[in-house]
Each structure stands twice: as structure tokens, then as C-alpha cells.
Write a structure and sequence with these properties.
Oligomer: single chain
Strand content: over 45%
Shape: elongated
Radius of gyration: 14 Å
Largest sheet: 7 strands, mixed
Structural class: mainly beta
Length: 119
């Protein structure tokens, strides 16, 4: 059984910063790509940023220059450093990971963590 456990969501004022963490736990052979998604109220879930096992990253245009995705492969953990937060960044942030276990490679999702940015 593999689980992704997120932390770091909070209420913050516009212009502030938050750091989200997502750790994969369980019997894991390899963690491949990891990513962060967000869903604002009344909107569809959207990709925020993704990082491959080799460290290549891709971010949504709306967060470029403000958010940075990184990972610690030894800890099977992905981070999202969010700076210069805006009210429109408010939403539930969820991580996902392509994880190889004894049963093969499966995409796992975390439970989500709430980020609220006040104006």
C-alpha cells in the first residue's frame, strides 16, 4: 500500500509564502515523475508544476517566477515553494506521483491540502 501525505497548506496574506510537502510512503521500488495540481472553488483541477526523476521541471505559466517545485529522491518527497502568493492561488493543492511497486507503475494521489490567500 502506497500513500502520499501532504502538508503545509495554510491561510496566508497576499504577497506571502508557503511551502508544501508531499511524502510517498510504502513499499516503493521507484518514484518517477511527481507533480502538484490545484483546484479552486467552481473550477477544474489544473496542473501547477511537475518534476521528473531526473530533475527536469515544468510549471504553469500562471506560477512561473513565483513557485518552485523540487524533490528529495532519498526521502521520496516533493516540495512546492510558493512565493508572492495571490488570492487567485487559493485552492486545494494535491500532489501526485508515478510510483513503481511490485505491482507495476501506478499514479497515486494525495488527499489534498488547502491553501487560502487573503487580499
Amino acid at each position: 500500500q502506497v500513500q502520499l501525505v501532504e502538508s503545509g497548506g495554510d491561510l496566508v496574506q497576499a504577497g506571502g509564502s508557503l511551502r508544501l510537502s508531499c511524502a510517498a510512503a510504502g513499499i516503493i521500488f521507484r518514484v518517477n515523475a511527481m507533480g502538484w495540481y490545484r483546484q479552486a472553488p467552481g473550477k477544474q483541477r489544473e496542473l501547477v508544476a511537475v518534476i521528473t526523476s531526473s530533475g527536469s521541471t515544468h510549471s504553469a505559466d500562471s506560477v512561473k517566477g513565483r513557485f518552485t517545485i523540487s524533490r528529495d529522491s532519498a526521502l521520496n518527497t516533493v516540495y512546492l515553494q510558493m512565493n508572492s502568493l495571490k488570492p487567485e492561488d487559493t485552492g486545494v493543492y494535491s500532489c501526485n506521483a508515478d510510483i513503481t511497486t511490485i505491482g507495476g507503475s501506478i499514479i497515486y494521489w494525495g488527499q489534498g491540502t488547502q491553501v487560502t490567500v487573503s487580499s
